[in-house]
Design goal:
Blueprint (H helix, E strand, L loop, with lengths): L8 H4 L2 H7 L9 E7 L5 E3 L7 E3 L1 H13 L4 E6 L19 H12 L4 E6 L21 H18 L3 E4 L6 H11 L6 E8 L6 H7 L2 H4 L15 H13 L3 E5 L5 H11 L3 E5 L1 H12 L5 H14 L4 E4 L2 H11 L1
Parallel strand pairs: 1-3, 1-4, 1-10, 4-5, 5-6, 6-7, 7-8, 8-9, 9-10
Antiparallel strand pairs: 2-3
Bound molecules: ligand PBG.
Length: about 325
């Protein structure tokens, strides 16, 4: 039975039937807001990310209040380390009174119901901008790095982080972190594993924001982040992380990797998150700023597409804007 009996346009004719058959509905519950925190007072704009600022802890609390009001479930914290605090061994990463640890405490004290996610990786703390500790040849050493990551994750959990999110792509780190969290009594701390994290050129603006771009220079992360050409490898990484004790997995970046998101959700059925990264934000913002794209239309379409591909939630720099628009739309 085809045309004229079947006319798919009948269902698209009116708003009521379009609404009735809509499969994917984005809500504020699907959003995680990444925030940059610095040691300075006030706010400082991030040049390559219009609308995004580095925040003092006081300003962070204001943003957290707004996120709570908008019912955004969680923030993801990214500290900007002062250059003099960086070192080859990255010990600033696990100090009890470090910037990240203080930010977590301040947030959990004022907004206990707002989820706080911390990034576990050494790149904000190393003088060379790599996510781990390097040997004399510059190679990022796996097992030595994992030891440092365990200390970092424990210090975040001790400060009260609800979720620790290893974004470093070292082998075996989820298992080691999980074991140590359990043995220290942090049995409720969730692990969001950046399992399928690609060596992407879309992280550029983020590296400007946290100030690791200069340190990294012409360096790259090809020996630990994944080749954008690979899909099977992502499934292997996800399987390992779930097996080692991850509660949630992540695919990163977002829009260029929606095939990976769909595969991950279909193959594992685990809570699956996607990071719409800084470069994706910058691209959209630049086009919006030039008047080439409609802001609400293209942002909501991008986020809805990520959810349709299988994501349970999206880390996005548009989280507060999108939550605000959804509220206005009712
Ligand atoms: C660091 C980290 C990066 C991002 C999140 N955590 C950068 C990188 O791996 O170089 C990128 C996020 C973004 O681009 O928005 N481990």
């Amino acid at each position: 039975m085809s045309y004229p009996y079947t006319r798919p346009r009948r269902m698209r004719r009116d708003d009521f039937s379009r609404r009735l058959m809509r499969e994917t509905v984005l809500t504020a519950n699907d959003l995680i807001y990444p925030v940059f925190v610095h040691e300075l007072d006030g706010r400082a704009p991030v040049g390559s990310m219009p609308g995004i600022e580095r925040l003092s802890i006081d300003e962070l609390l204001r943003v957290a209040e707004r996120a709570s009001e908008l019912r955004v479930p969680a923030l993801a914290l990214f500290p900007v380390t002062a250059p003099e605090a960086k070192s080859l061994t990255a010990e600033a990463a696990w100090q009890d009174d470090g910037l990240c640890q203080r930010a977590v405490r301040a947030l959990k004290q004022r907004f206990p119901d707002l989820g706080v996610i911390t990034d576990v990786a050494l790149d904000p703390y190393t003088t060379h901008g790599q996510d781990g500790l390097i040997d004399d040849s510059g190679y990022v050493m796996n097992d030595e790095t994992v030891e440092a990551l365990v200390k970092q994750a424990l210090s975040h959990a001790a400060a009260g982080a609800d979720v620790v999110a290893p974004s470093d792509m070292m082998d075996g780190r989820i298992g080691q972190i999980r074991a140590e969290l359990e043995s220290q009594g942090h049995i409720h701390t969730r692990i969001l594993a950046y399992s399928a994290k690609y060596a992407s050129s879309f992280y550029g603006p983020f590296r400007d924001a946290v100030g690791s771009a200069g340190a990294l220079g012409k360096g790259n992360k090809y020996t630990y982040q994944m080749d954008p050409a690979n899909s099977d490898e992502a499934m292997r990484e996800i399987a390992l992380d779930l097996d080692e004790g991850a509660d949630m997995i992540m695919v990163k970046p977002g829009m260029p990797y929606l095939d990976i998101v769909r595969r991950a959700k279909d193959e594992f059925g685990a809570p699956t998150f996607v990071y719409q990264v800084s470069g994706e934000y910058a691209m959209l913002r630049a086009a919006i700023g030039n008047g080439w794209l409609d802001e609400r239309g293209c942002v909501m379409e991008a986020l809805t597409s990520i959810k349709r591909a299988g994501a349970d939630g999206v880390l996005t720099y548009f989280a507060l804007d999108a939550a605000q628009w959804m509220r206005e739309a009712g």
